[in-house]
What we know:
flat, 4 helices
Amino acid sequence: MLIFALGHGINIVFPAAVVMGLVGAELLRRSGSVWPAVVVHVVFNLPTIPIMVLAGMG
């Protein structure tokens, strides 16, 4: 979980990355598969795509 958060850098998204790391770790523990955590990560990140495009960052 901490490695996931640190991989995203120490910035404003760090707290959210910690939470997502915890959620992902729990999903992995319960399911035995990384795929549920991957799906949650994708769904969580989907809204950032139009925001970045509108902000001229992508």
